[in-house]
Design brief:
about 475 residues, alpha/beta, Isopropylmalate Dehydrogenase, Alpha-Beta Plaits, six-stranded antiparallel sheet, binds nicotinamide-adenine-dinucleotide
C-alpha cells in the first residue's frame, strides 16, 4: 500500500483531518497514513522550522504530504511553516480549482453562471523569498525574484495541466506594463512555452483588468497562471466567486514532493468545537488521490460530497440558515452514507486507477543552475543606492566629484523617479537616492572599477546597496527611472 505523510495541523486542523480520513477509510482508500509532527505546537517544542527531523524524513521518503492548516507563530524571525514546506521541497506550482458547487450559494450560482477556473500560482519566487532589508531608517526594500527556470517550471506545468483538463484557454495574468523586467520575463517565458501547445488558446491580461473581468465574467476564464503574490490575491478572489475559502482545494506540486492542503487557515475562533467545514480539505484530498492515480476512490468521494451539498446538507458556515447545521462529524458521516449516489450536476466519471511513479531525487545535479543566456555579458555601469538628506543638486555635485575618469553620472532618482539632471520640484523625496553611473564612452567595466567608485563615494556617503548594470548585446539588465 502506498505510504503518504499526514500532518493534522493546528486549530481546526485535527478536526477536519480526522473527518477527512474517516471518509477515506470508509471508502477503503488504498493508502497507509504516516502521521508526522508539524505545526505551531512543534515550534513550541523548540523545532525552529516547525517540523521534527523525523517528519521531514518521512515526507521526503513518501513524496506526498497531506496537511491541515498550520498557525504561524507571531513575532519576528519566525517563518511560516507552510511557506517553508513549499520552498524546501520546491513545490513550484500552486494549483487551486474553483468550481460551482450546487448547494453552495454565490452571486454566480444564483445567476446560473457556471464557473470552472483553475489558478496556477508560482509558489517559490517573487517577494515570497522574504529577502527584505531596511536600507535607511525610513526605507525598506524587498527583493522580488523572478527567474527564467523558475517561471519555465510553473508555466510548463500550467500548460500540461490545461491540456489534461481539456481547457481551451490559458491566460497569463501579469503587470509587465509596469514591472517590465520581472513580469516581462514571466510573460516572455509564457509565450515561449505557448508555442509548444498550439491546441491551447494562450493570451495575457494585466492583473488589475483580470480582477475586474473575473468578477464580471468569470465564465470566460479557464486556466490562469500568475506569479506568486498576484496569484495569491487572485486565487482568494476566485474563492469568493464560488462561495468562499471553505470550498477551494489546493495542491502544491513539485517534481518529487507534492503537498495537498485546505486553502483556509486554522480558524482559531471555532477550533475545538467540532463545527468546522471539512470540504476544502476533503476536496484537496480528492485532488491528491487523483494525483497519485487512485481515480476510483477520488470519484466515489467527490460524487458523494457533491450529492451531499446538492441535497442542502451544510455546516454552520454556509447553506440555508433555516435548516439546522450539521457538525463536522455528522457532515462526514452524511458523505459516507451517500457513497455510490450520483449528483445531478457535474457527476465525476469513475475512471480506472493509474499507477503512480515519483521521480528519483538527484540532489547532486540541479539543471536549473545551468544557463546559456549570459553569453556576451558586459558591465556598463552601476546603481549606487545612497543614504542622504540633501537636495538632488547638492548630491549630484558630490557624486560628480567622485566619478573619476571611468564613470559618468547619468542621473539620480528617488523611489524610481528621476530628480537629476531634470525633474520636478513637486516630486517628494525620501532619504535614499539612486545615483546611476555608466562607463564613459561605453567601455566595458570590471568589478574592481565598481569597488573603486564605491570607495570614493563612501568618503562622503553611506552606500546602502549597489546593483551592477549589465548588458547582453542590445539587451539591458536594468529598468530606466521614471522620467529618464
Ligand atoms: P482563517 O482561514 O483561519 O479564518 C478566517 C475565517 O474563516 C474565520 O472566521 C474562520 O472561523 C473561518 N473559517 C476558516 N476555515 C473554516 C472552515 N473550514 N469552516 C468554517 N469556518 C472556517 O484565517 P485567519 O484567521 O486569518 O488565520 C488563522 C491562522 O491560520 C493564522 O495563524 C494563519 O497564519 C494561519 N493560516 C494557515 C494557512 C495554511 O496552513 N495553509 C493558510 C492561511 C492561514
Amino acid at each position: 500500500m502506498r505510504k503518504i505523510a499526514v500532518a493534522k495541523g493546528d486549530g481546526i486542523g485535527p478536526e477536519i483531518m480526522d473527518a477527512t480520513l474517516k471518509i477515506f477509510n470508509a471508502a477503503n482508500v488504498a493508502l497507509d497514513y504516516q502521521i508526522v509532527e508539524m505545526g505551531k505546537w512543534v515550534f513550541d517544542k523548540g523545532f525552529s522550522n516547525g517540523m521534527t527531523p523525523l517528519a521531514q524524513q518521512t515526507i521526503e521518503q513518501t513524496g506526498i504530504l497531506f496537511k491541515g492548516p498550520m498557525e504561524t507563530p507571531k513575532g519576528k524571525g519566525v517563518k511560516s511553516v507552510n511557506v517553508t514546506a513549499r520552498k524546501t521541497w520546491n513545490t513550484y506550482a500552486n494549483k487551486r480549482t474553483f468550481q460551482t458547487l450546487h448547494g453552495v450559494d454565490s452571486v454566480f450560482s444564483k445567476a446560473g453562471i457556471p464557473i470552472d477556473i483553475t489558478i496556477v500560482r508560482e509558489n517559490i519566487e517573487d517577494t515570497y523569498g522574504g529577502v527584505e532589508h531596511m536600507l535607511t531608517h525610513d526605507v525598506a526594500l524587498s527583493r522580488r525574484f523572478i527567474t527564467r527556470p523558475g517561471s519555465m517550471q510553473v508555466i510548463r506545468y500550467a500548460f500540461e495541466m490545461a491540456k489534461k483538463k481539456g481547457a481551451k484557454r490559458i491566460t497569463c495574468g501579469h503587470k509587465a506594463n509596469i514591472m517590465k523586467i520581472t513580469d516581462g520575463l514571466f510573460l516572455d517565458v509564457f509565450y515561449e512555452v505557448a508555442k509548444e501547445y498550439p491546441e491551447l488558446n494562450a493570451d495575457d491580461v494585466i492583473v488589475d483588468d483580470l480582477c475586474m473581468k473575473l468578477v464580471t465574467k468569470p465564465n470566460l476564464f479557464d486556466v490562469v497562471v500568475l506569479t506568486n503574490l498576484q496569484g495569491d490575491i487572485v486565487s482568494d478572489l476566485c474563492a469568493g466567486l464560488v462561495g468562499g475559502l471553505g470550498f477551494a482545494p489546493s495542491a502544491n506540486i513539485g517534481d518529487h514532493i507534492s503537498i495537498f492542503e485546505a486553502v483556509h487557515g486554522t480558524a482559531p475562533d471555532i477550533a475545538g468545537k467540532n463545527i468546522a467545514n471539512p470540504t476544502s480539505l476533503l476536496l484537496s484530498g480528492v485532488g491528491m488521490l487523483q494525483h497519485i492515480g487512485l481515480m476510483e476512490s477520488a470519484s466515489l468521494i467527490e460524487n458523494a460530497l457533491l450529492y451531499t451539498l446538492e441535497s442542502g446538507v451544510h455546516t454552520g458556515d454556509f447553506g440555508d440558515k433555516t435548516t439546522p447545521a450539521l457538525n463536522t462529524t455528522e457532515f462526514a458521516d452524511t458523505i459516507i452514507a451517500n457513497f455510490g449516489k450520483q449528483p445531478k450536476h457535474n457527476p465525476k466519471a469513475y475512471l480506472n486507477d493509474v499507477p503512480f511513479s515519483c521521480s528519483v531525487l538527484h540532489l547532486d545535479k540541479n539543471p536549473m543552475l545551468e544557463t546559456t543566456e549570459n553569453t556576451g555579458e558586459k558591465i556598463v555601469g552601476v546603481d549606487m543606492f545612497i543614504e542622504s538628506n540633501v537636495q538632488p543638486e547638492e548630491l549630484a555635485k558630490k557624486c560628480l566629484r567622485h566619478a573619476g575618469v571611468k564613470f559618468k553620472l547619468v542621473n539620480i532618482s528617488n523611489r524610481g523617479t528621476q530628480v537629476w539632471p531634470t525633474g520636478s520640484r513637486y516630486t517628494n523625496l525620501v532619504n535614499q537616492y539612486n545615483a546611476r553611473f555608466e562607463s564613459i564612452d561605453d567601455t566595458a567595466l570590471n568589478q574592481q572599477d565598481i569597488i573603486g567608485l564605491y570607495v570614493n563615494l563612501s568618503g562622503d556617503f553611506k552606500i546602502c546597496s549597489l546593483e551592477l548594470l549589465n548588458s547582453w548585446g542590445d539587451k539591458k539588465s536594468y529598468s530606466l527611472a521614471q522620467g529618464q
